[in-house]
Amino acid sequence: MSGQISKRAVVLASGGLDSTVAAAVARQDGYELYLLTIAYGQRHAVEIERAKQVAIALETRQHVVLDIDLRAIGGSALTGDLPVPKDRDVSERDRDIPATYVPGRNLIFLSLAAAYAEVLGASAIYFGANVVDYSGYPDCRPEFIKAVEATLQVGTKAGMTGTRFEIRAPLLRMTKAEIIRLGLGLQVPFHLTHSCYDPAESVACGRCDSCLIRRQGFAEVGVVDPVPYAVS
Amino acid sequence: MSGQISKRAVVLASGGLDSTVAAAVARQDGYELYLLTIAYGQRHAVEIERAKQVAIALETRQHVVLDIDLRAIGGSALTGDLPVPKDRDVSERDRDIPATYVPGRNLIFLSLAAAYAEVLGASAIYFGANVVDYSGYPDCRPEFIKAVEATLQVGTKAGMTGTRFEIRAPLLRMTKAEIIRLGLGLQVPFHLTHSCYDPAESVACGRCDSCLIRRQGFAEVGVVDPVPYAVS
Q1: Which residue among A173, A208, B29, B79 has its CA within the 20 to 30 Å range from the CA of A83?
Q2: Mean pLDDT of A60-89
Q3: Measured between CA atoms, how close is B46 to chain A, in angstroms?
Q4: How close B181 gets to chain A, by Cα (Å)?
Q5: How many Cβ contacts (< 8 angstroms) between chains A and B?
Q6: Rounded CA Rg of chain A
């Protein structure tokens, strides 16, 4: 870690594994961390609590939790409109854009992160997008990220006056096992992170896509996942 | 107006003059109207009430009011952090990006509108952006709108599977007088619209940039503005 920390980065922090590793990478890159958590009426509200604990553990400079009730718009399993798929194998997960896709979510989140960055005078935005395990999400793809950067460049006061916005997705092409290895090296508090799409009383189900991918990742690395699951 | 109305359009409706005329244009273009109003913790909350009245007057199919408290991010006169400028002449208004600029606002709003459109199966999004009277706002410029369209194309399920999103800003290059003339022809309920940045008890101040531009527009058209002002 660099001795002098003065640059600011906004990190989209969901309380999940990937975004927590992304935050640790931003810290490693020498940034002061400004975490932004979007409470969007998701089924797994436990994430918000975990995001707060992660923010403390990572010695974040500021943590903003922004409420926005996307249920008013609807259209996803993550906002309660559709059932969360369970026990799917890799081929099923890869076939379609999953029901857990939230229309416009990452664009909404990155827009909010950019607004926050502009207020802070920050140019770097970190987020934990990944194309390997979530190939079906259109708003995790590199071409999407490039398009958002271009939009920020022309559509913000900071962009018009010389700031070059960078949306950094350091995990974009990593497998879950690689992300976990990276996180282990950065002392990421994995025990605080939450990945399940459908927890019961804060306990991960162990069977949704997100749980399955996480558990397989830890198994590949050969490390025990410190999070408990309802189904072993 | 076309006889058969079946196409759906999302309209970003603030309760202001421009967005109400934009909604009337969408109706004229043959669309069923789905109004989206973002309650973003703005100083002028009276707009939300006016948006609801406008939605009824325009026989909107659905009106979603989405709460998002951008004050958590801060950085604008419209969210209460900076004073609203008063009594500025045109040269002053043109000189800078105004304090009423809300970082990332239109990108946030268009992202939400796109999410709503995707859920509805709509491809057209109307909004009342204008580059003539608001030359200082980076997120009202045509290049910004094009960049957002490109982003939606690559970053949404609908865009990936064939929907061609169109962000329509029919007022983009019109003067306020031209917008008012257009609205008069479309029977826009101007008496319900609200433009003031700094109203006191729902009464427009008459002195902020928005009031000054609106009043001059009505004066040029030679029609009485049906809205009362605190200062004549």
Answers
A1: A173
A2: 77
A3: 20
A4: 29
A5: 149
A6: 17
Burial of B186 per CB tally in 10 Å (0-12, 13-18, 19+): middle
Structure ipTM: 0.85
pLDDT at B184 exceeding the cut of 50: yes
A161 CB burial (10 A radius; 0-12, 13-18, 19+): exposed
Contact between residue B125 and residue B167 where contact means Cβ atoms under 8 Å apart: yes
In chain A, which residues have their Cβ closer than 8 Å to the Cβ of B158? 103
**Whether pLDDT at A146 is above 90:** yes
Give the distance from residue B170's alpha carbon to the nearest chain A alpha carbon, in angstroms. Answer: 19
By C-alpha distance, the chain B residue nearest A76 is B119
Conformational region of residue A75, where left means phi above 0, alpha means psi within -120 to 50, and beta covers everything else: left
From B70, B105, B112, residue closest to A108, measured CB to CB: B112
* Contact indicator for B206, B215 with CB cutoff of 8 Å: yes
Listed in sequence order, the residues at least 6 apart from B90 whose beta carbon sits closer than 8 Å to its beta carbon are: none
The answer to whether the beta carbons of residues A146 and B127 sit under 8 Å apart is: no
Chain A interface, best mutation among B109, B120, B154, by max A CB count within 10 A: B154
pLDDT tens by residue, A18-57:
999 999 999 999 999 999 999 887 666 788 899 999 999 9
Which pair of tokens denotes residue B84? Answer: 């609203």
Residue whose pair of structure tokens reads 């410190």 in the numeric block: A226
User: Residue type for A122, please?
Assistant: A
Q: Could you tell me the domains of chain A?
A: 7-221 (3.40.50.620)
Record: contact A138-B116, CB cut-off 8 A: no
